[in-house]
Amino acid sequence: MVRSLLPLGVALFGAASVLAQNPPTCSLDKKCPEEAPCCSQYNQCGVGAFCLGGCDPRMSFSLDSCVPAPVCEDKVYKMNTLDNYKDISEYLGDPDTADWVGQGEPLLYDGNVLLTMPPKSVGTVLATTRYMWYGNVKAKLKTSRGAGVVTAFILFSDVKDEIDYEFVGVDLETAQTNYYFQGIPNCADSVAIQDDNSGNITDLSNTYDNFHEYEIQWTPDEIKWLVDGKVGRTKKRSETWNETSNQWAFPQTPSRVQISIWPGGAETNAEGTINWAGGKIDWNSDEIKNFGYYFATFSEVTVECYKTNSPPGTNKGVSYYYNNIAGTNDTVVDSNKPTVLKSLLGTGTDMDKGGDNSTDAAETSGVHNVPGGSSSPANVPGSGSNSGGSDSGSSGSSSSGSTQSCDTKSFSQNCGSSGTSGNSNDGVRGADRTLGASAFAVIIGIAGLLFL
């Protein structure tokens, strides 16, 4: 598969909002400016949601620009409700108010959550509000299917450590697995420049028709990938020494669980990416005709925190933060620092900014406070033709609100739409996507996605 040092999320965000929003960009060589100090997962600078999950302290104005991240908590996430989900435009950092944050259109069907990808969209992503610093995580899911359609279940840290499962929709018998240290492929042969980050688990029964339990067991010394309780791959830390950087190229920092569906076969992608994803997406496929979207089905996610009395891997306090730009496990602090902003104008150095007038202040401020901006969601199956109205666009509440009113036994999720609305399914929600599917796996062309 084609790999890149650029995050996948750099390009995967809503077209309408990108055209209207132009936040500063950030990198290791170009930190965010003081007035927009937080570097989001997608290398864009801002305040508010930019400073919460995914904020990279190495690329931000200062290490403390990012809000501390909520520590791990053992939990079984039953995917039979969306009451525990918030759009990132609604979330201020309190993990007790939501288990999941994200963008896109998650829907309920028959006691499970569907991550959907309507025509010409960039899909749906959910991320946990709490972080894992080692431990075990399992997801019971059915993948999507179809050329160019990719399902992902990953661990992703703010400094871009990653452990993942990826599923390509034309190969329903294989789970692809990857790991990265700070997003950098580990070259097994410096002459051949061939990375050893990837490995496949094969001979699975149809991953679209059948639920499987995919598990990641992650300790300071090794990673194991298991399917239905059987170990399919193991990577030891001792195998990842990088002589060039003089360090272990092994994921080691607190990470969020992310689940997603995304368009690897978008026609604007690089040829290598499209080929890896199984070809170009057919937006007129039977899946689209029958249901209105491609989808992946999630039944349950279970997190078991790592158990230790001393770092790395503790979860004794309230939050994690970094005390050094190196972004390694010995720079992570398990602390009692707060995690909650008063408004989406806040940052890690001014968490009370905005106060009780947060909504009005955020809407009238010229500062970017939600990556990609916010606008009315597309009329996808599950939202209904008039479900959001003008009220839901700014609040972001339509994702859960409108879905709750749908008949969750009706697979197509039409929600009583009369079909007379002028809206269509080809819009894209105006907020950038926290797409985890191997965030360094492919380059998605920004300019191309703007005009899907």
Automatic annotation (TrEMBL):
Provide the catalytic activity annotation: Random endo-hydrolysis of N-acetyl-beta-D-glucosaminide (1->4)-beta-linkages in chitin and chitodextrins
Annotated region described as Disordered, given as residue ranges: 344-429
Which residues does UniProt mark as catalytic? 162 (nucleophile), 166 (proton donor)
Q: What class of enzyme is it?
A: hydrolase
Q: How does it sit in the membrane?
A: Lipid-anchor; GPI-anchor
EC code(s) of this entry: 3.2.-.-
Instruction: List keywords of the entry alphabetically.
Output: Cell wall biogenesis/degradation, Glycoprotein, Glycosidase, Glycosyltransferase, GPI-anchor, Hydrolase, Lipoprotein, Membrane, Signal, Transferase
Tell me where it mainly resides: membrane
Tell me a GO biological process for this protein.
fungal-type cell wall organization
Compartments reported by the entry: Membrane
Q: Which GO terms describe its cellular component?
A: fungal-type cell wall; side of membrane
* GH16 domain span: 62-285
Q: Mention any Pfam family matching this sequence.
A: Glyco_hydro_16
Citing just one GO molecular function, the answer is: endochitinase activity
What residue spans carry the Low complexity bias annotation? 372-384, 392-402, 412-425
Q: What span is annotated as the signal peptide, if there is one?
A: 1-20
Main function: Dual chitinase/transglycosylase that plays a role in cell wall architecture. Chitinase and transglycosylase activities are coupled. Required for the polysaccharide cross-linking at the septa and the cell wall. More specifically, transfers chitin to 1,6-beta-glucan in the cell wall.
Its family remark reads:
Belongs to the glycosyl hydrolase 16 family. CRH1 subfamily.
The protein depicted here goes by the name Crh-like protein
Q: What is the lineage of its organism?
A: Eukaryota, Fungi, Dikarya, Ascomycota, Pezizomycotina
